[in-house]
Amino acid sequence: MRKSLLFIVSVFFFWGFVAASNDILIPVFKEKLQLLQWQSQMIAFAFYVAYTVGSLGYLAITKFRGRDLVSSWGYGKSLAIGLFISAAGTLLFIPAANNASFTLLLMGLIVVGIGFSLQQTAANPLTISLGSPETGSQRLSMAGGINNLGTTLGPLLLSFAIFGQGGTGAAPTLDITAVKIPYLILGVFFVLFGILFWRMELGKPEEAVLEENLDAAPTESIFKSPQVWMGMIAIFLYVGVEVATASNLPEYLKIYHAIELNQIAPYISLFWASLMIGRWTAASGALGLQGRKRSLLRWALPLVAFGLFLLINRLGGYEVALFLPFLAAIFLLILADLLVKGNPVKQLFLYSTLGILATLLGMYAEGPLAIYSFIAVGLFCSTLWPCIFTLAIAGMGTRTSQVSNALIMMIMGGGFVSVFQGWLGSDEMLGIRASYWVGVVCFAYLAFYAYRMQLILQKKGILLEEAAGQGH
Question: Is 232 helix (H, G, I), strand (E, B) or coil?
Fold first, then answer.
């Protein structure tokens, strides 16, 4: 059981590694190919929309065949096929890098993302099933921690491949062909793990055969509920603000702080590490501890996560002392966690409000304060997924799976919002700094959604005390 879980959480690492590495690909291809800011954001667009394309494709196949794909193939073979699809996508990085082809790069990311979509479909329920249902969310939280490790390492390793240790390579003479090396290595791991999963017997979920008398009406009816359609918008904007903040950050750092491309990796790494810090902070309340032990963990876990970021970057050859002021933002997060006490409505509202303040401070402050304010957005995004998810499915009963599928489709917001902010970030529009008003609007909606859900759930007589899970 433990051995199986160890292999399974590895795919969570892969998802995080590729997602965060995109934030290095964006400025590299932008500079090399002289792309506009919105064009460079097509990297995020292709990757995140691929999740939706993959999900829709698998649902269509399931509808056509009358049975669920994962139920037919089993968990092991489903994960294997998803990994093989992603491995095929990494092969496109060879001609993409050799020919500096933006089109082939996007195609490669789309194929990788489609493979990830199938992996997500199988890995999440499988992780829950490997043990008692009561501890399923804890296993998902652990897997989420591995995902965050991937998001922290990804930008650093890709930057190392392009610029050398500590970013010592010269940005103006960067060799874009080096981009293919880490992805080809990743492709080899995809194949190796795919072979392992193909040979492993991990069982099948309970098969759900589609009945002919189920027409479209029940599926359409869930979208009439404000709880659902507002939740879908919330997921779209949450993933959007999280991804857009990070993917546009390199351009902001270059223009307003003169930070060269070969020195950007630790800033991107810290943004994604801040999600790990936030999730580890929230996890302190999910371990069932009370009194001093719980208080100690609430302060210790985020500091350990930050220490892990510092260690990884120090080993990568970067100067880490300049990131120590970020501790102030971490202390603010811990205090916020104390205030919300795990209540998803309060957490979504307070963290969204803090996200607004951090974004505004990033736009109007100067120097390191502005940089750390934008990076702190990651802290306040860290636990919004479980809050939104919990509020959207509360009281849905037998319709929970349908609502869950609808919410997961909206991950594509990471692509659309990034491109939109990139378009606004051009010199002809608002400029990169003012383009972060997009984030303010996203957070404002999320705060409004929390307020509306408080009223809706109170009317239904549903009380929620703790958010379920620790991130997507």
Answer: helix
